[in-house]
What we know:
The structure is a single chain. The protein is mostly beta strands. It folds into two domains: 1-148; 174-297, no CATH class. It has one helix spanning 20-26, and strands at residues 32-35, 39-40, 44-46, 57-61, 69-71, 84-90, 95-98, 101-106, 110-116, 119-120, 122-125, 128-133, 141-148, 155-156, 159-161, 164-168, 176-180, 182-183, 186-188, 191-195, 200-203, 215-220, 223-227, 236-241, 244-249, 252-254, 258-263, 275-277, 280-282, 287-291. The longest helix is centred in the N-terminal third of the chain and has 7 residues, at 20-26.
Amino acid sequence: MVSGNDDNSGTTQTNAWRTIQKAASKAMAGSTVYIGPGTYYETVTILVQGNSFNGSITFTSLMPDNSAIISGENATVASPDGTLNLIYIENKSYLNIINLELSNLNSSECSGVRIVGDGTRIELRNLHIHHILGGGKTGGAMAITVYNKNQETSLSKLIIDNCTLHDCEPAWSEALTLNGNIELFQVTNNRVYNMNNIGIDFIGGESNMGALGARSGQCYYNTVWNIHSSYDSSAAGIYVDGGSDINIGKNEVYNSDAGIEIGAENPGRIASGMVVHENYIYNNDKAGLLFGGYDSE
């Protein structure tokens, strides 16, 4: 049962705020926002951030065994960039989003969590994201989207760990995607399944994102299955499209169109410095491991 009042102080459980958005507007660096059990029908824009001196701001469920749910059912309030997202973060640092369930959002371009712009030390852990639906040619319905067009300042030290992502409709996009000037990231211990396009993707070189791509990261211990493209049956469980210097190891990918693919879809771009090792890849329709490059055809 969701309770509280946004006119409260928000500093104790008996004086709790009612909405997550209130906390996302007022929480101080170094604080923890405990979200009580229940379903919150909100689209949340994080307007606060931590810092290196006081520490990160953490948003997490009050009861670890009873995760709070953010539902997009009947959602209409768009994020500042015009897309529809359950949690939206732009140009922020020192944030932890932990142990929440995000579900039931439907739009042609939407995400469970969307991170845009530069920053450092954002952590997404123990999230359960599902039924983000409605993706099409003009956009995708994605579980986690991370974009940075800023060529001067990177998004660095991002961690996405132990999340369960399933039954979304990324369509022409990807279920979990890092695109643009993003470095020193870790994508680990996640479970990604039942998607209608690529599972995990690291992108560089798209014309609208600038020259700098996803790079110098780790992709380890993820399990990805039932990844099937709705339009050309070529979706890989894990894909590098023009990224660089990424270690992909000890992942399991099965029952998908393809296992792991390393390539580049944009002219003049290559995927360089890749290390792919000790992955368990099986029962995929087209291929287990693919390496390639740009072809105008």
